[in-house]
Design a protein that fits this description.
With 193 residues, the protein is an alpha+beta fold. It has helices at 2-17, 25-53, 77-106, 110-125, 127-133, 153-156, 163-166, 177-182; strands spanning 58-62, 72-76, 170-173, 188-190. The radius of gyration is 20 Å and the shape is elongated.
Amino acid sequence: IMQLAVIFGTMHLVKKAGLESPEYAPLIRVMYGTATAVILALTFYIKSVVQKGNDTTALEYDDPAPGSQQGRVVTTVAKYDLGEVAKLQKSTMFTTAIVLFMHFKFGYIQPLILQSLLPLLNLYKNQLFQIHLLGKPATDSLKRPWVAENPFAALTGAVGGDSAATAPAATAAPVSDGDAESSGSEIETRKDK
């Protein structure tokens, strides 16, 4: 609901203030570039915090990817978090490419303005940000593994809106230093028989 309020409020302000005028484009580009740079800088900072903490607690869960043949995934909390940071960085770069294409090819200003605000809000609500920068414990909705919420679940009553209810079964146990070193740097998987 907060995102919808931001979207509609921003669109209303853009029209009311006349920010779609070409004279505001350089300022809006700077605003968008700054917001994107802040988001990427924070993701790299979160990555360094995860690497520095190197939490070797074992994490074992069912692979939530649809159609996945991997079965159970065995990894550590640090490796899982680094994978999630990489997904966040790729998503940010992909969105940036699309928004810049829309702006420079078609002259759209609104996506620049919206994408200056929404990703910052989304980053604040992100589990990595909550755990590693705000210091919240990884319990309840922050418990790993994280399941992407279905944005339409609240509207349709479909399953998937509550990450705690749809999270795959997971177990966590500390890994000794010897086990962490022998586990390699990649996520290990195995099929259940």
